[in-house]
Amino acid sequence: MAARYHGDRQHPAFYALLVTLVFMSVGPVFLMFSNSFKTDIDIISGTSALFFLPTIQNYETALCDILWYEPDHLDFCAIRFGGAFVNSIIIALISTALTLYIGCMAAYALVRFRFMGRDSVSLATLAVRMVPPAVLLVPVFGLWNNVFCLDKQSLVGAWIRDVFGGRGDVCLAGTHSGIILIYVAMNLPFVIWILQSFIVQVPRSLEEAARIDGAGPFQVFWRIVMPLIKPGLAAAAIFTFRIAWNEYLLASALADRDTKTVPILIVNNTSEFSIEWGTIMATGMLLTLPPILFTLFASRQIITGMTAGAVKG
Fold this sequence. Notes:
The chain has a domain at 82-258: MetI-like fold (Orthogonal Bundle). The chain is built from 15 helices and two strands. It has helices at residues 2-8, 12-35, 40-45, 57-62, 81-112, 118-129, 133-147, 155-164, 176-200, 204-212, 217-228, 230-246, 249-254, 262-268, 277-307, and strands at residues 149-150, 170-171. Strands 1-2 form a two-stranded antiparallel sheet. Helix 2 packs across helix 15 (277-307), helix 5 runs antiparallel to helix 12 (230-246) and helix 10 (204-212) packs antiparallel against helix 11 (217-228). The longest helix is centred in the first third of the chain and has 32 residues, at 81-112. The radius of gyration is 25 Å and the shape is globular.
């Protein structure tokens, strides 16, 4: 019995590798968390790694535009984290919802319907995802600033300017819609590819039984297929939300002062002459909270979907 127990034990190298991976994953987050409570002098000096006098001035500087009081160490609130945070939430949530809504229907059509070029379309969706975002920067910037614009002299453009104010043409650049649209186009191919593997596992007999009972095509899709692919939807939602939340390159080119996101705010907080490391660390910690909470919520949906069909033996 003892020999059998000894044989089931893992090799010490396995635990060493596991500890190393955990340290590599948690270590940077812990370092950023501890530095967010230090002054810039403590961070630069490096002499106070674990033992230091914590301060919340960095968080007060980052959240100065939404605090109900004025921090004593600030003469002027230069960082507008509240507005950037709202922009990131709006862009990430709407782009994730639209990507899942369009992607699940496209994936279902590619799996269940037979038409000419179906396999080519399926492979093309993944090939498009392989295009680096940097390649899209110049053409998207030109299209969003020149082609997809409403002239202010036109009827619609004049109405928008009269109601919402502003000068010049009405373009997608500098708007939430423009950034959301490019995020949907960027994440949609990979979401389609993920959901195809989940839809294939749904038995056709369930859909045929629903059709025999009088259910229409949309009822079969929303009431039969969608509940069974919740784990896939949750996984795709995590992927899409994290990409939209952390993306910087395209957002920096398309956003303006009123639509800039948190990653842009963090980069803009650095300058050639001074870098406020404490504020950057505090803003970085605030940046990590929504993806963590969203991932935990979506992970529960993955576990629920995986255990929903479990049968006790």
